[in-house]
Write a structure and sequence with these properties.
Elements (H helix, E strand, L loop, with lengths): L2 H6 L7 E4 L3 E5 L7 E7 L14 H18 L5 E4 L15 E5 L9
Antiparallel strand pairs: 1-2, 2-3, 3-5, 4-5
């Protein structure tokens, strides 16, 4: 079982913002912005690149979870949603997740 699966099943503690039947949102332990939350599906999928057509509804729920996280944290006026796919793109936990970042101006281009 991967790290994020263990967080979703509460085998490993995390500072959870909210959870639903399908997703869990929790604060990143190494924040890259004043507000940095991860939203994960409970279903284990390695990455966006490994998702299938059957994951369409789950992917939508993850993005709606990012929106809810931004609302709950008061950053609806500006936030970034990032999904790293693969080690060369910076993915370090191989369970699909999105980063919700905000609370400061976010420059472009990133990286």
């Amino acid at each position: 079982m991967c790290l994020f699966c263990k967080i979703a099943s509460k085998e490993i503690p995390a500072k959870i913002l909210f959870e639903t039947e399908d997703v869990v949102a929790f604060h990143d332990i190494n924040p890259q912005a004043p507000i940095h939350v991860l939203v994960i599906p409970r279903k284990h999928v390695v990455s966006v690149g490994a998702a299938t057509a059957g994951d369409e509804a789950m992917l939508g729920k993850v993005l709606l979870g990012a929106q809810r996280a931004a609302q709950e944290l008061g950053i609806v006026d500006g936030f970034r949603v990032v999904a790293n796919t693969g080690a060369t793109a910076g993915q370090s936990v191989f369970h699909l997740h999105v980063h919700v970042l905000g609370g400061r101006p976010l420059g472009w281009p990133p990286g």
